[in-house]
Structure formats: C-alpha cells, structure tokens
Specification:
This protein is of the alpha+beta class. It contains 6 helices and 4 strands; from the N terminus they run ααααββαββα. A hairpin with a 7-residue loop joins strand 3 and strand 4. The chain is extended, with a radius of gyration of 23 Å.
C-alpha cells in the first residue's frame, strides 16, 4: 500500500519491527532537517540515569523478567484488556463473544471512566482514545461493572492457554471504596472544624 502511494521504495521490505517516520513540512529543506534530526536521535546513545550508566529497560518478555528477578515466581501482565476489546475483535472471539460485543464493551466503559487515553487510540472507534481512569462514583451510580478479559497460560512453556473468558469486577469493591472515601472525607472535615 505504501509503495502504491509512492511513500516507500520497492527495495525496502517492511517488517514487524520496522519503523515508519512520517514528516509533514512546509518545504523540502524543513522535511530534510526533520528527517536528519530523527535519524540522529535514533542513532544516539541512551542518556545516562541519575545513578550513572544507561537506564534499565523494563522487561518486555517473561524471559527478560526472569533474568532481572530470578527468584520471582509470579508474573503480573497488565494490558488495557476489556476496555480496549473494540480494537481487538479477534480476541473477543477467543474469550467469548463477537466483534460487535467487543465494541459494545469498549463503549460501555466510557460511562464509568474519567476520560480517554490519547496514547491508546482505537481504529474501529474512529481512533477515539481508550476509556481510562475508572471513576468509582460512576461505577456505583450507574451499576456498570468494569469488564475484564483474561487468558490463563499453561504452566509449561509452549503448552498454550488453558482458559480464557470475560468477567466483571464485583460492584461491592466499588461500593466499599465509596464508603471508605466518605469516612475519610468525614474525618478530614471534622479535623478541619476543630
């Protein structure tokens, strides 16, 4: 598609790890300067951390995590999950549902969040941001429980998944959070009045 649009030379073979840099400029010299600056940044050595040395890279695989924490026996893997299912119709079929369900889950989560995250845009929803920041008050007021999708990997590497599904966070934990917030607010108000 990029070749057909005249944006990529036929000799360049795109790959999953490729990086496409797009520059919009007033003229050719500005575009060239921007591309040169991007090239220099890509070739630059990472800045040193305050402690000295190159900052560590967060683990991006289980192998990297295990190498950084050999004694670990638990991996917590966090993704936007249920809130972003609208962008992953193939996943919803695996965990149970249809692409239409996936988009409905994402739209529903907009009713219980503080806003959207512009860094996680969803193409099937016209590139709107992913619902972000669960508001406990909205959860309790609407009764809409946050959707969670999950996959459980087999304990033996390479054996695949042993389960997957969609569930909801229990409403009770949000009700308890509201009650705790109210008590804390009451204590703070009483302390200020004294």
């Amino acid at each position: 598609m990029l070749v057909e649009a005249g944006l990529l030379a036929e000799t360049v073979r795109p790959s999953p790890n490729g990086l496409l840099i797009v520059v919009k400029a007033q003229d050719d010299s500005s575009a060239g300067a921007a591309l040169n600056a991007a090239e220099a940044m890509l070739k630059a050595r990472p800045a040193e951390s305050a402690e000295g040395g190159v900052p560590s890279v967060p683990p991006r695989s289980l192998e990297m995590g295990l190498a950084s924490m050999p004694a670990a026996n638990l991996a917590l893997i966090s993704t936007p999950g249920g809130f972003d299912m609208g962008a992953a119709p193939a996943i919803v079929q695996f965990v149970g549902g249809t692409p239409r369900d996936a988009i409905a889950y994402t739209r529903e989560m907009l009713h219980i969040t503080l806003g959207v995250h512009g860094g996680f845009t969803l193409p099937p929803l016209n590139f709107s941001g992913s619902p972000a920041g669960i508001d406990v008050r909205k959860v309790v007021d609407t009764g809409i429980q946050p959707v969670i999708n999950t996959g459980i990997a087999h304990r033996d590497a390479g054996a695949g998944q042993v389960g997957a599904g969609i569930t909801r966070a229990p409403l009770e934990c949000f009700t308890q959070a509201i009650n705790a917030m109210a008590k804390n607010f009451q204590r703070t108000s009483n302390a200020e009045q004294k």
